[in-house]
Amino acid sequence: MSHAGTRTPDEELSQFRVRGEIPVPVLINWLTAAAIPLLTFFAWRAVRQDSAALVPTFLTIFAVLLGVNALLYFLLGHQTLQRRGFIVLIVALFTFLAIQAVEDGSAIIWLFAYPPIIFYISQARVGVIACVGGIAGLIFLFSPLGDALFNSPYSTSFRISMIIVLSFEMVSCYILDQSRRRSKLGLLRLAAEFEHAAKHDALTGLANRREAVEQLENEYERYRRTQRPFSVLLMDIDLFKSINDTYGHQAGDELIVLVAQCLRDQCRRVDTPARWGGEEFLVLLPETGAEDALQTANRVRSAIEAASVTVENRTVGATVSIGVGTIEGNESIDRLLQRTDEALYRAKEGGRNLAIPAGD
Ligand SMILES: Nc1nc2c(ncn2[C@@H]2O[C@H](COP(=O)(O)OP(=O)(O)OP(=O)(O)O)[C@@H](O)[C@H]2O)c(=O)[nH]1
């Protein structure tokens, strides 16, 4: 998972979805589908109960606007627009329900639906701001100034209970939401670790053979589209068995890590150095012709020849033999690897510590 730029984990989280999690646009659609008939029902009841014309009119307007918000989402597919539109509408709706004392004041208890929704569909920061704003608004509504402005029918005990219970619910929702976000982050990090482990070699940290094959296939596809050739270096540490036998397996492993580091140092960022087998490495050089590939091979070879590790106060170095292959015409990846392997074999036969271009 990327931690690029100044993105906070919260923003980062919204980019990913864990399997089974309800996507925010879907939840908003469900809530809209539930709210429209409910609002229509309460509007109809308000008409029947002879409430002021304002109430049924506003409830109907909210139902229509929620429908328009959903329609716009289906037409444009703009998730942020859908979410922001929905938040604005529900904040306005809950404010209206509270200050107009809809349903003789009982509609204010719908405010309890607000905290879980707001925390789920927006970032934690937005949820906190919305909840603190909501409680502040409610305290204002229940204050003597609110009474003077809106003439609320709520009893004192109801007001106290409403503020305490709603605050309790908001804090609970915040805690549960934090826990949900932390577990989601943990799951995403675990998935990223698994993905990394599946694609990389544990000893060297280089791409493993499976990942190298995948990159080769991608590069091959690009070659077929653009006809810009790519090259591969297939290399093998010389006389590695005798290094293991003389200095031990641990020293052998250290040399493998050293070779990997030399590859990293000598390759471009776009190249893929990979551990191909035990003491075999492959480097994929995208958009690289034969001449440049041979130059890179010789640079890598010299860097490895110059490097060494210290084992029990003894300096141990190694050399590598390299086959250098460049894709030609319509040949397959297998054919390219076969030609490159033959070149590697010739480098071994020719005395080792050599880079030999593949033949036809
Ligand atoms: N330490 C260590 N040794 C390994 C690893 N993987 C393979 N080897 C050893 O590498 C050696 C490879 O030897 P060979 O393929 O016979 O060839 P070589 O001795 O390198 O000789 P040439 O390739 O002909 O230059 C074997 O002894 C393997 O056991 C590893 O991960 N760590």
Instruction: Provide the low-confidence segments as ranges.
Output: 1-6
Bound ligand species: guanosine-5'-triphosphate
Helix content: 55-70%
Distance between the termini: 42 Å
Largest sheet: 5 strands, mixed
Order of helices and strands: HHHHHHHHHEHHEEHEEEHE
Mean pLDDT: 92
Number of strands: 7
Q: Strand order, biggest sheet? A: 2-3-1-6-7
Question: Which strand-content bin applies to the residues?
Answer: 5-15%
How many separate domains?
A: 2
Shape: elongated
Strand-pairing-aware structural class = alpha+beta
Number of helices: 13
Return Rg in Å: 33 Å
Q: What does this 3D model show about the protein?
A:
- This is diguanylate cyclase.
- It is an enzyme of class 2 (transferase).
- It catalyses: 2 GTP = 3',3'-c-di-GMP + 2 diphosphate.
- Its EC number is 2.7.7.65.
- This protein is an alpha+beta fold and 360 residues long.
- It has 2 domains: 9-196, no CATH class; 209-357, Alpha-Beta Plaits, CATH 3.30.70.
- 64% of the residues lie in helices and 10% in strands.
- It is built from 13 helices and 7 strands.
- The strands form 2 sheets. A 5-stranded mixed sheet has the order 2-3-1-6-7, with helices on both faces. It has a two-stranded antiparallel sheet with strand order 4-5.
- β6, α13 and β7 (355-357) form a beta-alpha-beta unit.
- The longest helix has 44 residues, at 156-199.
- The chain starts with 8 loop residues before the first helix and ends with a strand.
- Mean pLDDT is 92; it is low at 1-6.
- The protein binds guanosine-5'-triphosphate (GTP).
- Guanosine-5'-triphosphate (GTP) is lined by residues 236-242, 244, 249, 252-253, 256, 278-279, 348, 352.
- Guanosine-5'-triphosphate (GTP) binds at residues 236-242, 244, 249, 252-253, 256, 278-279, 348, 352.
